[in-house]
Amino acid sequence: MQENGGPGGAVEHGFPHLAIVRASITALFRRMSADGIRAYATSLSPADAAFDASDDLHLGAQRVASAVVRALRLPDARMVVAFRPMEEAAAVELTAGPEYFIEVNDRFRTHRRDLAAALSHEVAHVLLHRLELAFPDPADNEILTDTAAAYLGAGWLLLDAYREDALTHQRFGYLTPEEFGYVLAKRAALLGEDPSPWFTSPQAYEAYVRGRALADR
Predict the structure, then answer these.
(1) 121/161 Cα distance (integer angstroms)
(2) Residue 213 neighbours by CB distance under 10 Å
(3) Is 145 within 8 Å of 123 (Cβ atoms)?
(4) pLDDT digits (tens, 9 = 90+) for 128-180
(5) CA 140 to CA 63: how far, in whole Å?
(6) Residue 4: strand pairing partners
(7) With 65 labelled, which of 22, 55, 83, 126 sits at a CA distance of 20 to 30 A?
(8) How far apart are CA 155 and CA 49, in angstroms?
(9) Which domain holds residue 137?
(10) Which residues contact 23 (CB under 8 A, 6 or more apart)?
């Protein structure tokens, strides 16, 4: 999963991928059925995603990974999380399972609040791999993965990882913040679950409101 931003970096805004986002939601319904989607009615909780300095690094990472797996309803998938220097935020090795290896950027050793966000994208890759759901274009597949993570209850963390101020410009994933907001609003309309109280980033909440306005229209 890519990570955008840093000091002086730019964060893309608006709805440039909206057509693929909508196609992704349609593809999820066709592959999983409406009843299958409704099985994901409860999102990953902020408490289950929490990972602070008092946690043992590896045990804590495994705990958070297991919580993301449960949220995305992959009960027999075991995630092994390893830290290493890398340009991306995280990457997963897709195999037949049941054990999957996720590598995450070394910076999550200390910047722990966003680890669950990175893991939500990678575990969504595993879910789509098992569902054999993919688009022909690899770039579209990354949009599909972000959309699936958000629509199925774990990807609100990807939006909450968005922060933009005078010193920091950070965004995880491939959707813009507003597109994440759009997907989360579509989920909220279907399942009646409002994610807005969970946002710790004011910019994430504002992006959710902008995305919800488009979804409402």
Answers:
(1) 12
(2) 13
(3) no
(4) 999 999 999 999 999 999 999 999 999 999 999 998 877 777 889 999 999 99
(5) 30
(6) 171
(7) 22
(8) 11
(9) 3-216
(10) 135, 140
What pLDDT is attached to residue 9? 57
As a whole number of angstroms, the distance between CA 178 and CA 22 comes to 14
* Separation CA 171–CA 159 (nearest Å): 8
Q: What is the DSSP letter of 87?
A: S
User: Is the pTM for the entire model greater than 0.90?
Assistant: yes
Q: What is the tens place of the pLDDT at every residue in 7-59?
A: 445 789 999 999 999 999 999 999 999 999 999 999 999 999 999 999 999 99
Rg (CA), the chain: 16
Supply 33's token pair: 């059925």
Contact assessment for residue 62 and residue 81, using Cβ atoms and an 8 Å cutoff = yes
Cβ contact 172:121 at 8 Å = yes
The span from the CA of 35 to the CA of 186, in Å, is: 16
- Token reading at 141: 């597949």
Q: Residue 83: left (phi > 0), alpha (psi -120 to 50), or beta?
A: beta
43 token code pair:
């999102």
Q: Domain tally for the chain?
A: 1
Measured distance CA(40)–CA(27) in Å, rounded: 16
Contact 61, 81 (CB under 8 A): yes
Structure tokens at 134: 């993919």
